[in-house]
Amino acid sequence: MPTWPGGACGALCLSFDNLGVDEASSAAAGLPALLERLGDRGLGATFFVEGVNAELDPDALREISAHGHEIAYHAWRHEQWGDLSAAEQAENLAHGLSVLTALGIELAGLRPPGGQLGPGGIKILREAGLRYVSPAGDGAGVEDGVALLPFQWRHVDATALLPGLDPVRELMAGAPDPLDADTLVACLSDQVDSLERDGGFMSLVLHLPLLDWLGEHNLIAVLDKLSSTDAWLARCDAIAGHILSNPEEFSGGTTLDPTSWT
């Protein structure tokens, strides 16, 4: 089993997706309160944002960075990454890199909307200079010099609601019906306990536009659970750095998942 810093049994990253693709969908209004809650608990997170936010709300990106969190890429306008051709992926990524770099933000990783790498695979990311990718799958790994930090759908808040993920809910709660926020948080808490007991890697994915649905008490419950975990909790770029420094321990460690929310 791969080893983690400090002798931790497992590693965990807390991530937030979707800052929004236009003014009507912007989730930036909830950022100050969220950043305060993270700071109060000393939690570092990775925010996977759409590149268009460098134009729509650069101050929100600066605020995230100023609080010590990582900004990573979630396509330009949340395009379904796996449906783009390799050329379209490369163009999308180059566009996002250019505008975010102009803000002083250096991107280390991508989470492909929909969870699939698609035709470009790892090659497009490596050529763009990214160090990690977070697709749908299981197990931290490394491929062609790029760290793999996959997420499992059962660790994603939107899985509670999206019609295309009925089978995942059946595995989580015994029925395909949508989950309420309390049930989701109970499932996530159990998964953190399993990570602490059995080891491995877990990417917990919350969506900024769903924080109101999740509710204040549930958000606090999740953050309090993470602040007391025995797992190594770190930003995605830090976890990727550890993997890339120990490639022999992580080679072949990832199994990709073809399931998507569509």
CATH topology: TIM Barrel
Q: Quickly count the helices.
A: 11
Helix-strand string: EHEHHEHEHEEEEHHEHHEHHE
Taking Cα atoms only, what radius of gyration do you get, to the nearest Å? 17 Å
Q: Biggest sheet: strands, sense, closure?
A: 5 strands, parallel
Class from helix and strand fractions:
alpha/beta
CATH C-level? Alpha Beta
User: What is the number of E strands?
Assistant: 11
* Termini gap: 34 Å
Global geometry: globular
> If you average the pLDDT, what whole number results?
96
What is the helical fraction, as a range of percent?
A: 25-40%
What can you see in these coordinates?
With 262 residues, the chain is an alpha/beta fold. The protein has a single domain, classed as TIM Barrel, CATH 3.20.20. The chain has 11 helices and 11 strands. The strands form 3 sheets. Strands 1, 2, 3, 9 and 10 form a 5-stranded parallel beta sheet that branches. Strands 4-5-8-7 form a 4-stranded mixed beta sheet, with helices on both faces. A two-stranded antiparallel ribbon has the order 6-11. Strand 4, helix 5 (121-127) and strand 5 (132-133) form a beta-alpha-beta unit. Helix 7 runs parallel beside helix 9. The radius of gyration is 17 Å and the shape is globular. The model has no long low-confidence stretch (mean pLDDT 96).
